[in-house]
Amino acid sequence: MAMSGRGSRSRINAVTRRTFLKALGAAGGSAAVLGAMTAWGMAEDGSGQAEPPQLDGDVDGARVIVIGAGPAGLATAYELSERGYDVKVFEARNRVGGHVFTVRGGQVSEEIGTAPQVARFDPGQYYNAGAWRIPYYHRATLYYPKLFGVKMIVHKNINHQAYSYMENVRGQDGGRKMVLRELYGDMTGHTSEMLAKAIDQNQLDLDLTQEDQEDLLTYLQQEGVLSSSDYSYGPNNSRGVDQYAGPGNQPEIDSTPRDLLDILSFATATAQQASIIYRMAPLLEMQETMQTPEEGMSAIYERGFLPRLKDRVQFNAEVLEIHQSPDSAWIVYRNKETGQTEQHHAEYIVSTIPLSVLKDIPADFSSAYKEAILAGSNYLSVGKMGLQFKRRFWEEDEWIYGGITFLDNPQIGTISYPTWGMLTQKGVLQAYYNFGDDATQVGNMTPAERIETAIAAGERIHGAPYRDEFESGFSVSWDRVRYSNGGWSGWSASAREQYYDTLLEPDGRIYLAGEMLSYVPGWQEGAISAAWMQVERLHQRVMQS
Amino acid sequence: MAMSGRGSRSRINAVTRRTFLKALGAAGGSAAVLGAMTAWGMAEDGSGQAEPPQLDGDVDGARVIVIGAGPAGLATAYELSERGYDVKVFEARNRVGGHVFTVRGGQVSEEIGTAPQVARFDPGQYYNAGAWRIPYYHRATLYYPKLFGVKMIVHKNINHQAYSYMENVRGQDGGRKMVLRELYGDMTGHTSEMLAKAIDQNQLDLDLTQEDQEDLLTYLQQEGVLSSSDYSYGPNNSRGVDQYAGPGNQPEIDSTPRDLLDILSFATATAQQASIIYRMAPLLEMQETMQTPEEGMSAIYERGFLPRLKDRVQFNAEVLEIHQSPDSAWIVYRNKETGQTEQHHAEYIVSTIPLSVLKDIPADFSSAYKEAILAGSNYLSVGKMGLQFKRRFWEEDEWIYGGITFLDNPQIGTISYPTWGMLTQKGVLQAYYNFGDDATQVGNMTPAERIETAIAAGERIHGAPYRDEFESGFSVSWDRVRYSNGGWSGWSASAREQYYDTLLEPDGRIYLAGEMLSYVPGWQEGAISAAWMQVERLHQRVMQS
Q1: Is the domain of B194 the same as that of B270?
Q2: What is the count of residue pairs from A and B with beta carbons less than 8 Å apart?
Q3: Is residue B157 part of a domain?
Q4: Residue B386 shares a structural domain with residue B468
Q5: E strands, B380-426, in order
Q6: How far away is chain A from the Cα of B304, in angstroms, using its nearest Cα?
Q7: What's the rounded mean pLDDT across residues A216-231?
Q8: pLDDT by residue (tens digit) across A366-380?
Q9: Which among A32, A215, A405, B278 could bridge A162 via Cys, Cβ 3.0 to 4.6 Å?
Q10: How confident is the model over A29-50, as a mean pLDDT?
């Protein structure tokens, strides 16, 4: 899950663990699945696969059609072609990457039913309208930039100099913004003080030795920056200062905390809204250090995969039909450059088409397979916008270098600041990242209305520069994007229980691959690791045939 | 304070605030000081000076000698020469930067009484043996890379995939390492659970409305990843997972917390040892986002200042004597290239020589001034080492991209991982950063012994690769470094009270500048902001003369 924004927490794991254990216990027909699991997930440290499968044996130039040049398609094509397969990739768009989509100047929008947009970003400016950050433990994703020498930089997800902006809270801070550092520092201080005093005054029924109690008090004193004498939370510099240390007679002056009751409602709303990052120990997938290619996420595919696959990728090839017989598999596609309808034949097909699109493509799938595709085709609506500003006012005026500001305006959700090009002149903000119905609502606006919505929200936080320094914007509403029809797969627990396993298996000569065949939906990791899984299975089959 | 390592916390501010208020109330003779304070530190937001002083008027080519080509010296020289002053910088070394010292291959050591070292780092590899990170609010420091277009990247200070390694703790984890994520996650969970249950069971005398109590419980539930039903802390993915989510039938499996009493002693030791960073809300100067030049900290001076000052910097010029008369000021220096003793005359001198060195240079200072220099000359002993490894095993094997591992071995203190060159082959770790007596002890070792000390400590944490993949090391013990005699200034409260103000004023035609004239010792910010302060004072005097 790339970023669910609100609500869903890791309690999902209670369900998935049961699913997993059930799968582990299953017999009959799933021996292959269990074999794959052993290969893929059950390393002693639970780390999953860090490298693509070793494919041994002579493949004798077996032909494979790969549909889609996103992460799953290119990983499939690369690994198979490295091993001697005769691979051809058919991509409906004129670019690689799929949902990995770095928008640079000149980029044309791909939405259906929205007025066309052309990105007017300056040379060197961009934003990632799709995948934008890679967690440190996504080993399959990180494998390729290392292999291809794609330069990586830190993506700062967490920056406590950014804000929380909550309108719908009780108390005096409703409708205002707070610097996350002050909010988090004060909440940690106040709650540490409460617990430390309760322990110190023996108000709790704790079965602690004297030594343990002293340790715990010391811990809380450190954690909350409490007074070591009476465990009170007072002025400190962790929450900020009234005066920064400077030259001459300019000592630092600690700032004074705000009262708990003045910020409690605000903090609680923030913790709920932004829990995935607000916490010190956020969801694993948001923890530091995240990385991203310096030149935009598409660089992994444009500069990494594409030069190594060049002649094997056919762009502007919109697949119209998918066919198979006992002996072969083929596609019918429209060559958008010539307008002609053409065919291509192979022994196998690996389709990485999103289920939300695949469901409408005539294909020689069994009815059970079609049913499963339909069951998994309910993709999440996701939207993003990039705004270019004349001046990085968030750095110059507000000292924010990367990180995320949280809003309780769900049409915006977050404003994210770039962690590249710091201290340069211009920059592109990620001005919103919305989900579900909120994303659909914003997607229903014209591009100009979307920009106005973003600016109106941003200027309430950043003031006049957010409007005055604005230069250009480019938005993507993924459920309107042709060939995507949504952000990423959204298996319900019941649909996954009933249909998911079906799609892990090939239907005849046709395999699927993509993030929808993983428990890492919406991340490149899901797409690439699922591709590796299917590559290995396909290869085993070729070797046995 | 660049990083005090252990112990000293922001309670220092209780003292400095008094000093400050006292200074504010002082009359007679300090009008200039107070004027400067208004200019320098008392902006409404307490932000200090973000830009160098505006110097108006015709300076008529007034000549100024600047001694030292570190941050203070180069900032002084640049601002004055931009304004029309005839500036000459005399630098005893053959490099700029002073305590800003990016060690690259071929660099020769500068220590006295230590066997010579030559850095054997590969091309492109380096570590910063001096300043290495810039906090987001150090506006004077960040002014120059922006002005000069020096490319900046994120310096990751905080990474919870790194370790705490504590030997001297009670309980089963003594002598072992813990991943900071697990340790912090569990402590936050357990303490949140304790407080939430106490509140829920009305064990505390809290004067909260029902609404506030519910908010607080919700907050703690979010913060501690507690069960929303009974506020218990259980399996979660924030502390880590037993299995990572993956393709096929590989769901994520939450990991199970460790018991509070199993980790309490370990966590308390970590919080004390690493409090400046371990906490979510660490000391302000350690908070995200920190930055550093991509090519090493020296790049600000080598690529920024030096090309703009080139002819005005004389290297290998060791100042032997500092003189002044009512009409002029001059230095006697040894030209280390020719071996000759030479003189240079000007109207004014700005000395950025560390007080620990200046105290031994014959100079026409008043006895009160000499006394103040001596009082401030007790500099902190600081040591660092960089180790180059054949392979970035901390990334490949342990998934650590930047951040800091903490040890309770004070000769090592910390191991820090580079946040540049991620996913490339080789890398240079900062293998220790020690202070005070510990730094002195390590400094007394031979370079080879220092390396063995570092490797012996590191392999207890990182295992065999720390020795097997080692290629070369280079250490700096700053109190042995010629022309430095220490890491940075260490004003005691009493010495600052009694002597500091004296040095803020010029002695005749001689001004001092450097981090020792600030409340930001050991940071470039202190050096540059103090330089700006003295530049403005000098200019005001020139305009009035």
Answers
A1: yes
A2: 384
A3: no
A4: yes
A5: 382-389, 403-407, 414-417
A6: 14
A7: 95
A8: 999 999 999 999 999
A9: A405
A10: 42
For residue A280, the model assigns a pLDDT of 61
A108 touches chain B (CB under 8 A): no
Q: Is A545 exposed, middle or buried (0-12, 13-18, 19+ CB in 10 A)?
A: exposed
CA B518, CA A164: separation in Å to the nearest integer?
Answer: 33
Q: Which two tokens stand for residue A220?
A: 């809380």
Contacts of A84 (CB under 8 A, 6+ apart): A58, A59, A60, A61
Query: What residue has token string 């330089």?
Result: B531
Distance from CA of B58 to the nearest CA of A (A): 26
Residue that has been written with the tokens 């922006």 in this structure: B146
A10 → closest Cβ in B237, B278, B279: B237
ipTM of predicted assembly, 2 dp: 0.91
Q: How far apart are the CA of A536 and the nearest CA of chain B, in angstroms?
A: 12
Instruction: Supply B304's token pair.
Output: 């920024």
DSSP letter for each residue of A179-195: EHHHHHHHHHHHHHHHH
Query: Which residues 441-500 on chain B approach chain A with CB closer than 8 angstroms?
Result: none
Mean pLDDT in runs of 10 for chain B (545 residues)? 34 33 33 34 51 91 97 98 97 98 97 97 98 97 98 95 92 80 94 97 90 96 94 95 95 96 94 76 86 98 97 98 98 98 98 98 98 98 98 97 95 97 98 97 98 98 98 98 97 96 98 98 97 97 93
The last residue of a domain, from among A458, A480, A502: A480
Which of A480, A508, A527 marks a domain boundary?
Answer: A480
Q: Do A339 and A370 share a domain, yes or no? A: yes
Residues of chain A in contact with residue B520, where contact means CB-CB under 8 angstroms, are: 245-247
Residues in chain A: 545
Is the minimum CB–CB distance between B46 and chain A shorter than 8 Å?
yes
pLDDT of residue A207: 87
Give pLDDT, residue B238. 92
d(CA A224, CA A238): 10
| Entry pTM | 0.92
pLDDT band at A172; cut points 50, 70, 90? low
The domain tally of chain B equals: 3
| pLDDT of amino acid A4 | 35
Q: Are residues A266 and A190 in the same domain?
A: yes
Interchain contact A315–B (C-beta under 8 A): no
Question: What CATH number corresponds to the domain at position B40?
Answer: 3.50.50.60
Interface test with A, best of B249, B500, B534, B538 (most A CBs within 10 A): B249
Interface test with A, best of B244, B422, B525, B532 (most A CBs within 10 A): B244
Residue whose entry in the numeric block shows the structure tokens 């003369």 = B545
Residues B447 and B318 in one domain: no
Residue given tokens 């001092």 in the structure block: B512
- Assess if residue B137 is contained within a domain: no
Q: For A22, name the nearest residue in chain B, comparing CA atoms only.
A: B249
Q: Which tens digit of pLDDT belongs to each residue from A254-282?
A: 999 999 999 999 999 999 988 766 766 57
Check pLDDT > 50 for residue A293.
yes
Q: Are residues B200 and B270 in the same domain?
A: yes
B118 in A contact zone (CB under 8 Å): no
pLDDT tens digits, one per residue of A388-428: 999 999 999 999 999 999 999 999 999 999 999 999 999 99
A323 with A410, same domain: the answer is no
Which of B137, B241, B271 is the closest to A244 by Cβ?
Answer: B137
CATH of the domain at A427: 3.90.660.10
- The alpha carbon of residue A443 is apart from the nearest alpha carbon of chain B, in Å, by 30
Q: Which residue of A has its CA nearest to B399?
A: A136
Q: Tally Cβ neighbours within 10 Å of residue B455.
A: 18
pLDDT for position B173: 63
Contact assignment for B287 to A530 by CB distance below 8 Å: no
Sort A78 into a burial class: Cβ within 10 Å, 0-12 / 13-18 / 19+.
buried
Domain span at residue A106 reads 102-132+380-480
Whether B402 contacts chain A with CB within 8 A: yes
Same-domain check for residues B399 and B337: no
Report pLDDT for A534.
98
Strands B348-351 and B63-67, sheet pairing: parallel
Tokens 């112990």 appear where?
B7
The whole-angstrom distance between B171's CA and the closest CA on chain A is 11
Q: Do A281 and B185 touch (CB under 8 A)?
A: yes
